[in-house]
Amino acid sequence: MTVLTDHTAAREAVDAGLRAAAARLPAPAARIAAYHFGWTDASGTPVEANSGKALRPLLTLLAAKAVGGEEAWRQAVPAAVAVEMVHNFSLIHDDIIDRDSLRRHRPTAWKVYGVNDAILVGDALHALAFECLAEAGGDRVPAGTSLLAQTVRALIEGQLADTRFESRDQVELAECVAMSEAKTASLMGCATALGALFGGGTPQQVDALRDFGFRLGLAFQHVDDLLGIWGDPAVTGKAVYSDLRNRKKSLPVTAALGSGHPDAPELAAIYSATGQLTETELRRAADLVEACGGRQASRTSAESLTESATNSLDVEGLRPEAVEELTELAASTVHRAN
Q1: What are the pLDDT digits (tens) for 199-225?
Q2: How far, in Å, CA of 147 to CA of 141, rounded?
Q3: pLDDT at position 240, please?
C-alpha cells in the first residue's frame, strides 16, 4: 500500500504548519506540545520520534485533491493543520482521562509534565486550531469554522458518553456506536468535508466526502478497538490489553456483553469486579470477547463500513486518481487489524 508514503510535499506542509502554530505558544507550553507531537524528547532536544499516522490531515488534503485536482491540496493545508490540532488536543485530554501512560511508544504528556500542564496545552491546541483555520482567509472560513466547532462539540459529547459508560454495568451496542460516531467518526467526516470545502467542491461533493470520512471514521474506531485488546504494543505504542485494563466499553466488548452467549456473564463479572485486573484475568477477558463474537462483529462492521464509505464517493465531478487514493486509504485502515 503506497498511498500513505507518496505525499511528501503535503506532509511537509502540514508539519510546517503545525510547528509554526505550536511555536506561538508560551515557551513552557510550546515545549510540551513539541514533545507530544514527537518533535523533541522530554528535555526539549529535537528527535526523530513517531508523530503519529497523520491520517486526518491526509484525508483533508486528498479530499481537496478529489474536488479540485492535483494541486488543490495546497488550499486546504490550513484546514488540515486545524483538524490535526483538534485531534491532538483530544488525544492529550483522552490520555489524562484514561490514565494512559504510553502513546506512540513514549510516556504521555501528562506522565512527563503533569496533569495540569497537559490539560492547559490541550486547551491551547484547541484554540490554535481555530486560529489556523481563520487565517486561511476567503469566503469558506465561516462555514469551515462552524463545521469544526460542531465537530468539537460532538467530540466532547462522545468523550462524556465514553467516561460514563465505565460506571454502568450495561451499555447497549447502539449507544456504543453513537458514542464512537461522536468521538471518532465526526472528526474524520469533518476532515474530509473541510478538504472538499477549501478545495472548491460543490455542496454535493462536500456532503459526499463528509459521508465518506464519517463512515471511514467509524470503521477506524472498530479497528482501533480491536487493537486496544489484541494489538501488538510494538505497533500500537500502548500496553497490551490497554482497553481491558481500563474496563472500557469498546465496540467489541459491548457486542460481546450483549451477545447472549453463555460466556457473556463471565465477561460481565470480570468487568464489574473491583480492583486492578491481573494478567490472567486480562487474557481471559480477551478470550471471552472473542468467544462471544465481539472480535468478529467488529471486523465485519469495519469491512462493511469501509465498503459503504467507498460507495459514497460515487458522485459527479470527483477526480478518479484521488478517489482511488481515498479508496486505498480506506482499505489500509481495515487491514491494520489483520
Answers
A1: 999 999 999 999 999 999 999 999 999
A2: 10
A3: 83
pTM, two decimals, is 0.94
Ranges of the chain whose pLDDT falls below 50: 1-5
Indicate left, alpha or beta for 45 from its phi (over 0: left) and psi (-120 to 50: alpha).
beta
| Percent of the chain's residues with pLDDT above 90 | 88
Strand pairing category for 106-107 and 102-103? antiparallel
User: pLDDT tens digit string along 131-158?
Assistant: 999 999 999 999 999 999 999 999 999 9
Show the DSSP H helices in 43-140 as ranges. 55-68, 77-98, 109-113, 115-134
Distances (CA, A) of 291 to 60, 261, 283, 296: 38, 8, 12, 9
Contact assessment for residue 251 and residue 265, using Cβ atoms and an 8 Å cutoff: no
Smallest Cα–Cα separation from 65: which of 324, 334, 312? 324
Answer whether 135's CB lies under 8 Å from 128's CB: no
Predicted confidence at residue 49, as pLDDT, reads 65
How many angstroms separate the CA atoms of 33 and 138, rounded?
A: 29
Grid coordinates representing 86 are: 483538534
Q: Whose grid coordinates read 496545552?
A: 121
Task: Find, among 12, 63, 79, the residue nearest to 329 by Cα.
Answer: 63
pLDDT score of 233: 86
| H-type alpha helices, the chain | 8-22, 27-37, 55-68, 77-98, 109-113, 115-134, 141-165, 173-180, 186-198, 203-230, 233-236, 242-245, 251-257, 264-272, 279-291, 294-311, 320-335
The three-state secondary structure class of 283 is helix
